[in-house]
Predict the 3D structure of the following.
Amino acid sequence: MRDVIIACDFQNQDELFEFLKPFDGLNPFLKIGMEIFYKEGPQLVKKLKDMGCRIFLDLKLHDIPNTVEKAMKNIAQLGVEITNVHAAGGIKMMEAARKGLDSVEAGKNTKLIAVTQLTSISQEALENELLIEKPLPEVVKAYALNAKAAGLDGVVCSALEAPIIKKLGLISVTPGIRFADDSVNDQKRVATPAYAKELGSSYIVVGRSITAAEDPVAAYKRCVKEFC
Ligand code: C5P
């Protein structure tokens, strides 16, 4: 089930469709995040699906269980491949999210994954701002176990954490991917597609290494060759 997901971090659909032109016929798996979704809405997801693309809808829901369940009922109708919530919302919220997806036929096959801790949260912020006095990896593992207890399929994490997640019987969706000859940009914990495969990632999420490449299709094919 290994696959490469392109992070479509574009401001609007014109930019996205321009980017996608040379991918015609390749039907790539795309990550649609809140940036473009808040501009273009569910119609964009429908269009991309009609074009034959699979979608990871990265909206990271986090609210009371009742609200998340109802929001997921609407997301379910889009029939996306993967969507997500924040594990910080708790087990009941994650269960409600799954219930919302399962209540609509098209959502039953949607994989639900959890964000454990944002990679922007440091150990210091965890302790001083969130008042969680535990080592970050321990928190990540505990939140992943909560996701499992709630019946979720997996988590978003660094490829370097994929082996632990695999041991828990969960799938891992891993950003922070760079080719060996790429610049790392703002990512701190990076892996190449080949190393992510070795570590047992289920899906890699690749943004700038594809979107900012001189030849994005060639970069995408290189990812697929290394990872799949
Ligand atoms: O351009 P780059 O490959 O760094 O993009 C990675 C994508 O994965 C971006 O959409 C980023 O927001 C997302 N992401 C991440 N780290 C996380 C969760 C998501 O880089 N922990």
